[in-house]
Amino acid sequence: MPIHVRENQYRGVNAHLHSYLQQHGDWSVFHGMHITHLSEALQNLLPPESGYIALPEKSLQILRDDLFKLRSSQTIPDVEVCKSIGVSRRLVSTGATSPGAVIALADTFIEPERVLAVAIYQQTEDDVLGTLVTRIELLSPANKPPGSYHGQYLAKREETLQSGINLVEIDYLHERRSSIPLMPDYPKHEPKSYPYLILVNVPYPSLEEGKVGIYGFRVDDPIPPIAIPLAGSDSVTLDLGAVYNHTFISNFAFGLRMVDYEKLPEAFETYDAFDQGRIQTRMEIIAKSIHPPTN
């Protein structure tokens, strides 16, 4: 019998949910909600008198790998080819006016869709929003290797840090290696690799003297609270675990449709042996809590 529970049953990232989202290409559903909740949590931590504001805005990332397959894989017919197909001939024969010009359908699309990130601004006298001091990115599959936009993301990441802007990167996608090459490769189950990573990049007091705080954690580890860097030496502590659980429970489809604790997560083999053991232990605990043994 399926086991569905509205609340997150893991102590941290829900391995069942994140496996489902990655296998079915549904990451954007979670991404949009979580960015909104991160922004709300930071707004509560940064009251107006603090001089900071937090806003969801366009990310450094592009949403998906295959958004523009049409542009690269389909030929664009010219006017003569259009006139040769049956429908076009019938329209012309009944007095239809030919178009003044023909352009590629793909050229009418919007630019590649960007997901949202959280931006924190410090108030200034000459700007309504102020100066951008920190970006918080929740990484998407297309921006991790071998995603189509991995290189573009790295370029924008470097540009952000060179501008002196702090960058917090939250990575809950265990099936693809970190976007930062020096990080151990979890999909290859390399030693000292983690399924989940948070990188806090602080180019202060300068890019050369800046540091990267690395938070790596395993399946069923609590999500660590993070000191979010602001201007100079300012910071604020964000309870990421509380925000994550808020996102999880906010959409009943996560716990009551996408997650079934009776079954192993999809692509279970993508977890290393240690995390597989933790998943199985968690499933046993959940099963006993839902169906306690009878004497």
Short structural summary:
This protein is α+β, with helices and mostly antiparallel strands and 295 residues long. Helices cover 33% and strands 21% of the residues.
Itemize the secondary structure elements and their pairings.
Elements: H1 15-23, H2 27-45, E1 52-62, H3 69-73, H4 79-84, H5 86-93, E2 114-124, E3 127-138, H6 150-162, E4 166-171, E5 196-202, E6 211-217, E7 226-229, E8 235-238, H7 240-250, H8 252-258, H9 273-290
Parallel strand pairs: 3-4
Antiparallel strand pairs: 1-2, 2-3, 4-5, 5-6, 7-8
Helix pairs in contact: 2-7
Structural notes for this entry:
It contains nine helices and eight strands. It is of the alpha+beta class and 295 residues long. It has two domains: 15-67 and 118-290; 68-111, no CATH class. It has a six-stranded mixed sheet. It has a two-stranded antiparallel sheet with strand order 7-8. The chain starts with 14 loop residues before the first helix and ends in a 5-residue tail after the last helix.
Task: Supply the key terms.
295 residues; alpha+beta; 2 domains; two-stranded antiparallel ribbon; 33% helix; 21% strand
Radius of gyration: 24 Å
Q: Total number of helical segments?
A: 9
The share of residues in helices is 25-40%
What would the average pLDDT be, to the nearest integer? 84
In percent terms, what proportion of residues is strand? 15-25%
How would you describe the shape?
Answer: globular
Poorly predicted segments: 65-94
How many distinct beta strands? Answer: 8
